[in-house]
Amino acid sequence: MLFGHHFAAIAGAGPLVGPVLAAQMGYLPGMIWILAGVVLAGAVQDFMVLFVSTRRDGRSLGELVKEEMGPTAGVLALVACFMIMVIILAVLAMIVVKALTHSPWGTYTVAFTIPLAVFMGIYIRYLRPGRIGEVSVIGLVMLVFAIVSGGWVAESATWAPWFDYTGVQLTWILVGYGFIASVLPVWLLLAPRDYLSTFLKIGTIVGLAIGILIMRPTLTMPALTKFIDGTGPVWSGSMFPFLFITIACGAVSGFHALIASGTTPKMLANEGQACFIGYGGMLMESFVAIMALVAACIIDPGVYFAMNSPLAVLAPAGTTDVVASAAQVVSSWGFTITADTLHQIASEVGEQSIISRAGGAPTLAVGMAYILHGSLGGLMDVAFWYHFAILFEALFILTAVDAGTRAARFMLQDLLGVISPGLKKTSSLPANLLATALCVLAWGYFLHQGVVDPLGGINTLWPLFGIANQMLAGMALMLCAVVLFKMKRQRYAWVALLPTSWLADLHPDRRLAEVVQPGYQSGLPGDRQ
């Protein structure tokens, strides 16, 4: 049970989206990094941080740094953790926005899970206390109903406009949702939906794995593409270091250190479980990343690039036929595709268009839909499985957004407590509301800038996400090395220092500057030519 809880907490959008975006260079570089990274760095970090936190009464990462490296380092670590968390939450939310923009079916289905979770919380707490089996069956049945009825809503001229939103509108909806979800009691919304999403996550992952074995699909994406030189349209940058930044979760993720410290260690029955939970949980996430890479690489490369390239690249301003323009541009890169094919796939998945659905989530959903549809002998249509996959991804991500916003609130309250001790009290409603509002406005700002970016936001925010995530991993691994030296176990310190040195080499200032390249125009202030 604890393994499932820990896996659900660490497995957010990263292992689903990073490998999909990395596929623009071909399937081989991403596959090698996922397999090598998880064994030598990612799983090592998760296990070691979990062990260290367990030995120190389940203290959080910031508290551990303060205790082991001094108060100044502790405050700096807390500030860094908060800033990194803000960027991570903005990127996670942006993936949801990109997947649901002008998608009444997807928006309705995801929105349906909110009142469903509230009902489940009230049901298990007041109506039928302890009846876990009953509420589980109700929840799963209603999830299927949400997907099916979403198709009816999308086809209705009356209801579809109520769930058809632009990216900016969805941004503010998510900001409002993030605030409310973080201040509501955990039992009312977060706990029941996390419980429900755990079933969906595990069931979908197992089903996708079996589907891949049954279908044995051909990888249509080349092992290496022409964009290995760093000129790709999906994201800009050379293979080193940007491939290793693009695939963070699934290989090594600093976000996991926040879960492996302070949360999971308090639930371990004994210290011996740390290896299975920490190392094993990360191996499971790596398995998810490999399947995401497979799902993306079975799609026609032309479709892949049409879905993930920025609209400004595929259809310059003034273009009347966006689909035809996209087909022509992608074909000019050597990945032949026709406008009819793009129209056909959009029709099959039940969407108005699949052009420039950046963020990776829609691409993964298309791959998953064809695998699940084919492996189940055509049970339900492709559109059902596409929106099932969108729901799966959205719950994956929103679970992390909910938990991350709450964790960021605690970090901010610790920092504000330095200025005014009263703001640190988590029992104070005004302090909680203030800290939550500041958190959601912080990540909401970055989310908005990414959404209005004419190049899709992914070019800027995803590298920032990867860099922030792996800088946090480097911090956590350095902490583990310090603890090993203090324990007089320095002969094992290389286990932490080896991946730390690799992560440090990925992110010196000269490479951080490449995130926003000369002449590149993003939607972020200070980067408009």
From TrEMBL:
Its main location: membrane. It is found in: Cell membrane. It comes from the Bacteria. It is a multi-pass membrane protein. Belongs to the peptide transporter carbon starvation (CstA) (TC 2.A.114) family. This is Carbon starvation protein A. One of its GO terms (biological process) is cellular response to starvation. The keyword Zinc does not apply. Residues 2-503 form the CstA N-terminal domain. The chain crosses the membrane at residues 32-52, 73-99, 105-123, 135-154, 170-191, 198-219, 239-259, 322-342, 354-372, 384-408, 429-448, 460-485. It holds the Pfam family CstA. InterPro entries: CstA, CstA_N. One of its GO terms (cellular component) is plasma membrane. Keywords: Cell membrane, Membrane, Transmembrane, Transmembrane helix.
